[in-house]
Amino acid sequence: MLRGLYDWTLSLAARKSAQWWLAFIAFVESSVFLVPADVLYLPMALSRPDRAYRYALIATAASVLGGIAGWFIGHYAYEAIAVPVLEFYGKYDDFEALRTSSGLGFIVLMLITSGAAHLPPIKVVTILSGVIGVNLLLFTILAIVARGGRFLLLAWLLRRYGEPIRHFIEERLGLIAGVVAAALILLYFVLRYAA
Questions:
Q1: SS3 for 163?
Q2: Which residue has the higher pLDDT, 79 or 164?
Q3: Residues 29, 71, 81, 116: is their CA dihedral positive or negative?
């Protein structure tokens, strides 16, 4: 199923309506969808490097709006919408563990790491932020920084290095960002519990 979703999302890059699809995928990724917007963003930006920053801004705006929708789902419709979505992805138990142990500092860290490396998936963080009542303005600012940073970095890399960087991005950038995200999470726990 996941491979089919991935292939379908990738196929959208060739359509004339690709920008609208990018906005849609970035929006739903931040609240309920499994496939990251990068799958659509990368081929679009590679086919039109002159529009890489434009696509990055579209993806950022839509992702932040989707994140706000996720926040509202978590805050106002946790039982009705969030629980079934989390159960569908098999993430409910993990989510509940995060919910009971998360504070504002950890949410900030997770927004940054999910924005940089999809660790954890952004939809988990947006819903969790609403459930525990993170200030919506603070959440929005952090989402802009985290998601904008990711898409603008990708735009810069693609504009500067073109097609050769695609394989690096697809194969290694996620790993590097994941290692950095894991290091940040570890540092957070060391500072929190060592003090």
A1: helix
A2: 79
A3: positive
